[in-house]
Input
Amino acid sequence: GYSMFDGTLPDGTPLLDALRARGITRLHVGGLATDYCVRATVLDGLKNGFAVELVADASRAVNVQPGDEQRAIDEMTAAGAKSETVGQFPVG
Output
């Protein structure tokens, strides 16, 4: 699957269940590819009630069609994701 929510922990626990069991409410998502896996994970996270922040400069797109990356970012932010950069994380 494209979304991390399609995955499980080594013991078979669905990732969604593991996050909820740990009280996690916010996700910071970056990776490959912005227009596929990152997009699917962000949208699934929002659908499942998480606050989601797209780490834009820690992500890269495939861009099969010119503009795919920007369209994916626009879709994620329109759905409620916030966009941030690595430099916005506190140090220490």
